[in-house]
Amino acid sequence: MAGKTSTDGTHPRSRPEYIPNHIPDPSYVRILDTTLRDGEQSPGAAMTSDQKLGIARQLVKLGVDIIDAGFPSASQEDFNAVKMIAQEVGNDCDADGYVPVIAALCRCNEKDITTAWEAVRYAKKPRLIPFIATSSIHMEYKLNKTKEEVLQIAIDMVKFTRSLGCDDIEFGVEDAARSDTEFLYKILEEVIKAGATTLCIADTVGITMPLEFGEMIAGIKANVPGVENAIISVHCHNDLGHATANTIQAACVGARQLEVTINGIGERAGNAAFEEVVMALKCRGDHALGGLYTGINTRHILKTSRMVEECSGMYLQPHKALVGDNSFLHESGIHQAGLLKHRGTYEIISPEDIGHERSNGANMVLGKLSGRHALKNRLQELGYELRDDELESVFRNFKAMAGKKKRVTDVDLKALVSDQVCHVEPIWKLDDLQVTCGTMGSSTASVKLVTVHGSTHVACSVGVGPVDAAYKAIDLIVKETVKVLEYTLNPVTEGTDAIATTRIVIRRENNKTLTHALNGNFVYPTFSGTGEGVDVVVSSVEAYLTALNKMLDFKD
């Protein structure tokens, strides 16, 4: 049964029946979200299994066609997360029969493919994505294989995938954008014959220009025998800032599956952003893109963006298209005058279309006399739905802040909320911190931590500054050797009583957390943490402890 596309913020046409290698409506574009796999490959964006499950459920609310749930062979933790998503999210049909396809990435070898199939086969609609590189530079230096060897591996592994019982196979062509055209056509022709139902054409290094990438997709559609029996998919990276443009151009010339990530997170400069691609099709599909449409319920975009932002620790620039804090703010007097007369003068998209709510209390000032009801109401207007215990924790922190500041702004509230959601159960908590610093001698810090079992531990240390001293004291308690890869400190509000947001990225300095990279090498997982507060040293310590707790919670 074909699920119907919701009309609140989405295209009014029905979602076509799902057939792996065919879309009954030629104007319908499938959306594959790879936030949980490619997005998590961003340095410092590692997420727990529970966080991934929560995001997968939110992707269902968006109505994505395919969820790329992860790379099961990377680690036991990844395998467990993919399997859990396949079992729980991949079997949750709605009243119209909609249930997402659950996909898993695997290299072109039998062990990877078998492992991935074991993780996703529990879903109602499982898919495997075996991939191999086809560019000369990858075949020579990474794979150390000839064209003939790569071609045979591709054919054999697609056939092996089908032999396991998987009839929805997306063959991934890594670095397709830099591959020899004739070889690319040949390998695509042969994997279709072997049983591939979707062809993923990847601009792995984000090197192509939009017209160039469009010509490449058009060439595949025109020159690959049997391509009418498969779906052309595109996977674009953003190294030159063209990922969204390349993706849209590909859709215009025949690609009918677009691979994206929430907020555009991903390797290096990231991937094509879900919100940009989907809203481009919604806003311009009928007028400029030949009637293309998706099945996405766009009113869930903002909430999903915030969820991914908080769970991954990858915070958005204020002017990020559509979901940045400044996306629908207007300061210029000329703009404001136009908006007061007609919002269409400076807004091409209604904020409500992606999940913003017009606030009736926009001029209401929250301060030390405000109660729980006022706080809860404003948080709901900002898009936050908190449990009672989370609200109580935010309220305590809110009252403490309101005692120090004359006015608590929306940005302050977002900072207060961010550490209450998408967090792991802390193994160590800060109980007390005392620091001494100045121009005479080294800084010193005394730290008291409390374990999850309630025992307290105290340590003192010296450092080149109060933050360095505090971190060294924590290391003495936790007894872990940690390398700080990144430390940033930014004020998120104005004034001398501004909240400071600290972000830190760390890794363990031993071999206990090694995991496989996609190229078969080993890498160290990295873990990020954030902290907010008017005291920059305390916020720095909170960020460090958040990252440490993630690292200690990580299961090899």
TrEMBL record:
Region named Disordered: 1-22
Gene Ontology terms describing biological process: glucosinolate biosynthetic process; L-leucine biosynthetic process
InterPro entries: 2-IPM_HCS-like (IPR050073), 2-isopropylmalate_synth_dimer (IPR013709), AIPM/Hcit_synth_CS (IPR002034), Aldolase_TIM (IPR013785), LeuA/HCS_post-cat (IPR054691), LeuA_allosteric_dom_sf (IPR036230), PYR_CT (IPR000891)
UniProt GO molecular function: 2-isopropylmalate synthase activity; metal ion binding; methylthioalkylmalate synthase activity
GO terms for cellular component: chloroplast
The keyword Amino-acid biosynthesis is assigned to this record: yes
Positions of the Pyruvate carboxyltransferase domain: 29-302
Catalytic activity entry: 3-methyl-2-oxobutanoate + acetyl-CoA + H2O = (2S)-2-isopropylmalate + CoA + H(+)
Protein's UniProt name: 2-isopropylmalate synthase
Organism: Glycine max
